[in-house]
Amino acid sequence: MAEAVDTVDVVDAAVGEAPGAVFVPRSRAVEGVRAYGLIVAMWLRSTMAYRASFVMTTFGNFLATAFDFVTILLMFSHVDALGGYTLSEIALLYGAAGTSFGLADLLMGSMDRLGRRVRDGTLDTLLVRPVPVLAQVAADRFALRRLGRVTQGLLVLGYALVTLDIDWTVAKVLLVPLMVLSGAAIFGAVFVAGAAFQFVAQDASQVQNSFTYGGATLLQYPPTVFATDLVRGVTFVVPLAFVNWLPSLYVLGREYPLGLPDWVAFLPPLVAGACGAVAGLAWRAGLRAYRSTGS
Hints:
Structural class: mainly alpha
Shape: globular
Oligomer: single chain
């Protein structure tokens, strides 16, 4: 009996429970969320130890991302419409994409460091811990300063919603927050899938960034300014169009690209779920294929 108690104490200590507490097995998902929260809390305590630095870096992040919208404002100082869209309509696209990507970047932005961990062998230290590796990688060096991007996106989105003359319905009202949250989930899945690719490529963070940061920049502009083949690619291959293009066009009452039906505007949650499932499979395949550096 004493040996059983000792075993429980060891397991409790490993997962952070008080020694002697009754051990209740948790699912991997629950353990992952719990571990993610603990790691994030650790980095938040570290960040708040230098509050002046946090405020300045957050404000700097806000200003750096704001220059993207300043560029759009400069364009509209010379034209009345871009691809047939007004400033307020593009602000809706920009704000929705910026907020969704900002949330995903805040929660999952550390995934692009995985390639470095694979190359230098530090990923091995995460494998021996009794919590999911994905949670550890995602929460590593959690940067609260990225709230600056989220704040800037929300401000532009708010500006668009106030200035646009939209015939609001219950469906359109509900679609706005649904679009932002589903878009964040889609971007999060792209972050995970890109990290899984780095198990093979090892030095492919820029490839991942082309779909995350590059995708966010692409979605800030209307689909009418891009080639049809590109619009097809981000609709049916890497479904970034479901982040903001398709839901926003429904809210604005505009025609969809590629002749799609109106109901596709309400598919972002399903698309996010499908992307998450594919990204999860890719992550597990990459993790199983990983071989230590041996050093």
